[in-house]
Write a structure and sequence with these properties.
This protein is an all-alpha fold. It is built from 9 helices and no strands. The longest helix has 18 residues.
C-alpha cells in the first residue's frame, strides 16, 4: 500500500521536477552554500526507487537532497517520512509528516501516516485530531469527490492503528 502512495506521489510531484534547478544562464556560477549541488528530479527518482526496494537509508538520503532544494514540497516530505518510518525513526517520520500536512493540507496519505505515527507513539489526542481532519475531509467530499475512496481507506487505516495502539496501564497487583 505504501508503494502505491509513493508511486502516486511521484506522479503528483511533476511541479517539483519541473522547478528543479539546472541549465540556463551561462557565465560564472555563484558558490553553493552547501558545497554540493543535487539534481532534484534525479534524487527524487532515486528516492522513489529506494522506497520501492525497501532501501530506506538510501531513500532518506535522496529525499534529504531534494528537500535541500525544495524544503516545502509536501510529497517529498511525506516520502521522507515513509523512509524514516521504514528505518524505525518515528520521531523523524512525524516531523516530515507534519511538514507535509502544513505544506499541503489535502495530502490524505500524509494525514493518515501522521495519525498512525501519533498512535504508535502513544499520542492518542493528536491521532484523534488527524482522524477528525480526515472525517472532515470525508464530510466535505460527501463521497462524491475523486479522493473519496482514498479518504475512506485512510480513515480505516488510522482507526485500526488507534485501536491497536499502545495503551498506558496501571498495574494494581504486585
Amino acid at each position: 500500500l505504501r508503494l502505491l502512495f509513493a508511486a502516486a506521489a511521484l506522479g503528483a510531484s511533476s511541479a517539483l521536477l519541473a522547478a528543479a534547478p539546472g541549465g540556463g544562464g551561462g557565465g560564472g556560477s555563484a558558490p553553493s552554500m552547501s558545497g554540493q549541488q543535487y539534481d532534484a528530479a534525479a534524487e527524487y527518482r532515486k528516492g522513489i526507487e529506494a522506497i520501492q526496494a525497501e532501501h530506506y537509508q538510501d531513500a532518506k538520503k535522496a529525499f534529504e537532497h531534494v528537500l535541500s532544494v525544495a524544503p516545502d514540497d509536501a510529497n517529498t516530505n511525506f516520502l521522507a517520512g515513509l523512509a524514516a518510518a521504514g528505518l524505525g525513526d518515528l520521531k523523524t517520520a512525524r516531523k516530515y509528516y507534519e511538514h507535509a500536512v502544513r505544506s499541503d493540507k489535502d495530502l490524505i496519505q500524509a494525514h493518515q501516516e501522521l495519525g498512525i505515527t501519533y498512535a504508535k507513539t502513544g499520542d492518542k489526542a493528536k491521532a484523534q485530531a488527524e482522524l477528525d481532519r480526515l472525517n472532515a475531509m470525508q464530510q466535505k467530499c460527501n463521497s462524491t469527490c475523486a479522493k473519496a475512496a482514498d479518504i475512506g481507506k485512510a480513515i480505516q487505516a488510522l482507526t485500526a492503528a488507534m485501536a491497536s495502539a499502545p495503551q498506558a496501564r496501571l498495574e494494581t497487583q504486585p
